[in-house]
Amino acid sequence: xxxxxxxxxxxxxxxxxxAFSHELLAQLQNVPSSLPNPTLFVSxxxxxxxxxxxxxxxxxxxxxxxxxxxxxxxxxxxxxxFDGYTSTEKLDETDPEDYPIWGYGPWxxxxxxxxAFVGCNRDEIALLRNATEANSYIANGLDLKEGDEVLMTDQxxxxxxxxxxxxxKRYGIVVKKVTLPRPVPNAAAVLxxxxxxxxPRTRVLFFSHITTVTGVVLPAKELCALARSKGIISAVDGxxxxxxxxxxxxxxxxxxxSSSPHKxxxxxxxxxFLYVRxxxxxxxxxxxxxxxxxxxxxxxxRFQRIGSSNVPVLCGLRAAIAFANAIGMERIERRHRQxxxxxxxEMVQRGATSWTSPDAALRCGIAAVNVAxxxxxxxxxxxxxxxxxxxxxxxxxxxxxxxxxxxxxxxxDRYLAAFDEFRTMKRTx
Length: 429
Hints:
alpha/beta; 7-stranded mixed β-sheet; 4-stranded antiparallel β-sheet; 13 strands; 44% helix; 13% strand
């Protein structure tokens, strides 16, 4: 039984929650109702991005350089999610058998714009929660025998590598790795490494389109062609790609592709997808089985049948695609490349060692540098606590700098000034 004190405490907590929600809604209402005028981009490009920055709830005094982990959703995406909850929680469907559990529908209203955005057919796309989930579907769903080899790089995300490690431990497949140079000098170096590592037992080529470790853009189209020429399945972890750079899966030529649009596409958190080339769909077993798992007519839809799900998140994904299309992916990709090139050049001038490829085709929105003897844990915490600048890296001394299009030049310069201050402080301490 809830006594009076606990009731009042609970009531205060609920009131605080309501106040928070009202504050959030007020913030969204203060966001400009439309994107900046395209003519502004021509006359004042930085002014255009400055106006666009107002669509995001990141406070003006904070600088976010970690889109490689997760992006910030702009106001139209958040509004789409909230509107989704408003409509679904009414439970007022016309058909009394139709409940918003959402786990058994085709969701074509969401798959169609996504398929168009990434260059494939609707029936080749399954809507999931993230790339890790999609990678697990791939690793668990392929028919592989003991001793069969999966070839990958040494720069895979745990959510890409470990589904295969689990399969190896349980069923005896073999995971092999090629070691990528830091930095990767050119595409030929990558192709040669993979080609030399392929054996008669190689069944799958698995690699990140853009690696999480250094942000190198691997020559995915050429690697997929290499795999196809040898009768090997190509599976690509594209967690970073949608929203960072243009993507056309049919042009890429891969057999399977996973992604997390909540990174660079700025979609709602928990947005992911699995692409399976139509000719491969019937060769992939379901990992989660419910109604329709064995119905070939469903094509890739059967991989998104997971029981109850979260359709407001899908509303946010659709809004994120519309937002990116309104800006233009060509413009977005150009901005990403320009900002990453600038921050990389400035860091190298400060003595950092670049782990980012010197080949412009092999880099986009991420610059990775080694700043030894500076320790990443120390500078990461100092940046956030003292400067409200969010960075991320890897032990002992790597900094991975993500440059989303809403990052302004003045923000980059403020980060660089903070880096100089930290370095000077360490030298004199």
